[in-house]
Design goal:
The complex is a heterodimer of chains A (about 300) and B (about 160). By secondary structure, chain A is an alpha+beta fold. Chain A folds into 3 domains: about 55 residues, Uridine Diphospho-n-acetylenolpyruvylglucosamine Reductase, domain 2 (2-Layer Sandwich), CATH 3.30.43; about 120 residues, Uridine Diphospho-n-acetylenolpyruvylglucosamine Reductase, domain 3 (2-Layer Sandwich), CATH 3.30.465; about 110 residues, CO dehydrogenase flavoprotein, C-terminal domain (Enolase-like, domain 1). Chain A contains 11 helices and 15 strands. In chain A, a hairpin with a 2-residue loop joins strand 9 and strand 10. The longest helix of chain A is centred in the last third of the chain and has 28 residues. With about 160 residues, chain B is of the alpha+beta class. Chain B has 2 domains: about 80 residues, Ubiquitin-like (UB roll) (Roll); about 80 residues, DNA polymerase, domain 1 (Orthogonal Bundle), CATH 1.10.150.120. Helices cover about 40% and strands about 15% of the residues of chain B. Chain B has 5 helices and 5 strands; from the N terminus they run E-E-H-E-E-E-H-H-H-H. Chain B has a 5-stranded mixed beta sheet, with helices on one face. In chain B, a hairpin with a 2-residue loop joins strand 1 and strand 2. Classes of the chains: A alpha+beta (about 300), B alpha+beta (about 160). The interface between A and B is medium-sized, with 29 and 31 residues.
């Protein structure tokens, strides 16, 4: 463990060292993964931590790897790693969301753990991890490792259930190898690049073995309320439809209803239509490509 | 705290540094490397871009306590034997420097790009510098300068390969 000649900075090199530090970690200490949000809070004097726990040197936290029935993404995996990783079609919404975060410079620093722990309503990863039934894996000072659904972990804007002496180790994403599953994420922002999400839409569909009927659909929408919401009413419009001849009318009507009911911003009730069309168009294009590879 | 890192090829040992001191402040005030500029201080403008382990990062968003063991390159580190880097020359030759405030960050973002994609398309160049704002709006000249530098790097590399 690197104790940087100062009692207040801890830089564990292993999981065991991390546990040791958490046992005595002060309640006003702060945990740094990428630091892109934290440094701004420090600069604005919003926080005054008495200790720093610097993650990033623990190998387990920097890995993306396939386990028997899930994908492991360590909490210190950066947006650049996620954007560049070759995910299967079912998980490509992760690529989409990571590519949409900030600039190249931000993506090289910002981590998935930080993105979820900050619980920003405008998070790009929050809708996607909820869409993919992701579990956050947490460890505390008692060495007890536990898992939570992202939806249960995020309580409100900027609030999670994480205690001061707990650390996110990573995320488990279930894998369904036997399904024709395709996912996508797209956001609406004020400009094309380096812009915060005003609405983020994540869609996942299961395609029947007939290679055209949508058997199941899930939709999550971010940035329209304090935390990402599940939009079953929109998703149900897609179920049973043929992928190449989807009727957009009902889908768009429901999308407008969901945004109107959840967001006080009137422009979003209009803007969702454009985003919903673009997202579905891209989903169809991705599905077409996926099916062409499985012919 | 003590920080050991490498800046522009030299090992640097910083003693008595506050853990929450930002990299940009260490570079400009402690190491007197004034080429790195501060713009927004929030990671939005890219003026403070440096390379950390070969990747472009905002030095205004990195703390001293994150620096141990890392390799930092600033705009000063691009000079080799008193000679400017191909990218620096190309920026001058293509009129890509107007007020010059964004130039160090812009050049380092371009450097990071060319280290991974030696012959980038215009779109790849624009993506790579999308986190760098030029308030003089000289983007066309900047893209042209990066394109021209990439060609020169390729010629140099090809000549070096022949010599070997």
């Amino acid at each position: 463990m690197t104790k940087m000649n100062n009692e207040e900075v801890f830089c564990p090199n292993s999981y065991n060292e991390l546990i040791e530090i958490l046992a005595d970690f002060p309640s006003d200490g702060c945990i740094i993964a990428g630091g892109t949000d934290l440094v701004i809070k420090l600069q604005k004097n919003i926080i005054h931590p008495s200790a720093f726990l610097v993650l990033g040197k623990i190998p387990q936290l920097n890995k993306i790897e396939y386990k028997s029935n899930y994908l492991w993404i360590g909490s210190c995996v950066t947006m650049t790693q996620l954007a560049d990783y070759s995910f299967p079609f079912s998980l490509q919404s992760i690529n989409d969301a990571a590519r949409e975060v900030g600039s190249v410079q931000i993506r090289n620093l910002a981590t998935i753990g930080g993105n979820i722990a900050n619980a920003s309503p405008a998070s790009d990863l929050q809708p996607v991890l909820m869409l993919l039934d992701g579990l956050v894996v947490i460890v505390g000072p008692d060495k007890n490792i536990y898992e939570k659904k992202i939806n249960d972990f995020i309580v409100d804007s900027g609030k999670t259930t994480l205690n001061y002496n707990e650390v996110i180790l990573g995320f488990k994403i279930p894998i369904f190898n036997n399904l024709y599953k395709v996912s996508i994420y797209k956001k609406l922002a004020y400009r094309k690049k380096v812009s915060i999400s005003r609405i983020g839409m994540a869609i996942s569909i299961d395609i029947n073995t007939d290679k055209e009927t949508i058997n199941n659909a899930t939709i999550y929408i971010g940035s329209i309320s304090k935390k990402t919401i599940m939009a079953n009413s929109i998703a149900s419009c897609l179920i049973g439809q043929k992928i190449f001849s989807i009727d957009y009318n009902n889908y768009l009507e429901k999308a407008t209803e969901v945004v109107t009911a959840n967001s006080p911003r009137k422009y979003k009730t209009y803007a969702i239509k454009g985003l919903a069309i673009d997202t579905l168009d891209l989903l169809i294009a991705r599905s077409t490509f996926f099916l062409s590879l499985n012919n | 705290m003590i920080v050991n890192c490498n800046v522009n090829g030299k090992n640097v040992n910083l003693t008595s540094i506050a853990p929450d001191r930002r990299l940009i402040d260490i570079l400009r005030e402690d190491l007197l490397l004034k080429g790195t500029k501060e713009g927004c201080g929030e990671g939005e403008c890219g003026a403070c871009t440096v390379l950390m382990d070969g990747k472009a990062v905002n030095s205004c968003l990195i703390l001293a306590c994150q620096l141990n063991g890392h390799e930092i390159i600033t705009i000063e580190g691009l000079m080799q034997g008193g000679e400017m880097d191909v990218l620096q020359k190309s920026f001058i030759e293509n009129g890509a420097i107007q007020c010059g405030y964004c130039s160090p960050g812009m050049i380092l973002s371009a450097k990071a790009l060319l280290m991974t994609i030696p012959d980038p398309t215009d779109e790849e160049i624009r993506n790579a510098i999308s986190g760098n704002i030029c308030r003089c709006s000289g983007y066309n000249q900047i893209v042209r300068a990066i394109k021209s530098a990439s060609k020169e790097y390729l010629v140099k590399k090809s000549n070096n390969d022949k010599d070997e």
